[in-house]
Specification:
Blueprint: E1 2-4, E2 7-9, E3 19-22, E4 25-28, H1 29-32, E5 44-47, H2 67-74, E6 78-82, H3 88-102, H4 111-124, H5 127-155, H6 159-183, H7 192-195, E7 198-202
Parallel strand pairs: 1-5, 5-6
Antiparallel strand pairs: 2-3, 3-4, 6-7
Helix pairs in contact: 3-4, 5-6
Length: 204
C-alpha cells in the first residue's frame, strides 16, 4: 500500500505535468504513464493530497488524465483520490476512519464501502466527539511539529530559511486554533466540502 500526504498540483492546462511534490523532487503524471513506472504488486494507493482526482482529457483521448489514473495505469489495483483542495484536518480524520473501516475487527469493508462509511461518519461527527476522540492526538502531534519548527527557525543560518520555518510555526498555530473552534461546533464537518471530494477508482 502507498499512502501519500504530500502536496499535489493538478495542471488542467497540461495534465501530463500534474505532479506529486516530494521532499526531494516530484512525480509527474507523464512519468506514471511511462513504461519506467510499473507497480504490479501495489494493491492500494491513498492520495490524501489536493486535486489528485482532478483532471481533463487531451484531444486524442476520451480518458480523463489525473494522478489517480496514472497510478492505475502503473499497476495499482485501487486508488483513493480527491477532487479539490481538501481540508487538512478533515482529511486526517477521514484517513483514520477509512483505514479503520478497511481493517475492522468484525469483517473488512471493501474500498467503496469503507469510503462511503468514512464520509458518512465524518459528516455527522459532533464537536464533542472531535474534542474527546481526536483532539488530544492531533494536538500532541502538532505541538511536536511546532517545537521542531521553532528549533529550526532559531538554528536557521539564512533569512530565507528563518522566514520559511517562522511561516511553518504560524500555520501550525492557526491549525491548533482551528481545532479549538471546530470542537465547539455542533457538526464541524457537515458541509460537503469536507467529505464529498474523496473518490475511489479501480477494483472494489
Amino acid at each position: 500500500m502507498l499512502l501519500s500526504c504530500h502536496h499535489a498540483q493538478s495542471r488542467l492546462d497540461n495534465p501530463l505535468e500534474s505532479k506529486l511534490e516530494l521532499a526531494d523532487g516530484a512525480i509527474t503524471l507523464g512519468e506514471l504513464l511511462s513504461p519506467a513506472w510499473r507497480l504490479p504488486q501495489l494493491a492500494d494507493v491513498f492520495l490524501s493530497c489536493c486535486e489528485t482526482g482532478l483532471g481533463r482529457s487531451l484531444d486524442h483521448t476520451d480518458d480523463v488524465l489525473t494522478l489517480a489514473t496514472g497510478f492505475l495505469c502503473a499497476g495499482a489495483r485501487s486508488v483513493i483520490s480527491t477532487l479539490w483542495s481538501v481540508d487538512d484536518l478533515a482529511t486526517a480524520i477521514f484517513s483514520i476512519l477509512y483505514h479503520q473501516n478497511r481493517h475492522q475487527r468484525h469483517g473488512n469493508m471493501n474500498r467503496p464501502q469503507a469510503l462511503q462509511q468514512a464520509q458518512q461518519t465524518l459528516r455527522v461527527m459532533t464537536g464533542s466527539i472531535l474534542d474527546q476522540t481526536y483532539r488530544p492526538k492531533l494536538e500532541a502531534m502538532l505541538n511536536l511539529n511546532y517545537d521542531e519548527a521553532e528549533n529550526k527557525c532559531r538554528q536557521a543560518t539564512t533569512k530565507q530559511e528563518r522566514k520559511y520555518w517562522a511561516g511553518v510555526t504560524i500555520r501550525i498555530g492557526d491549525t491548533l486554533d482551528m481545532i479549538e473552534y471546530l470542537c465547539a461546533q455542533p457538526y464541524p464537518f457537515e458541509h460537503p466540502i469536507y467529505w464529498a471530494g474523496f473518490v475511489c477508482h479501480g477494483l472494489r
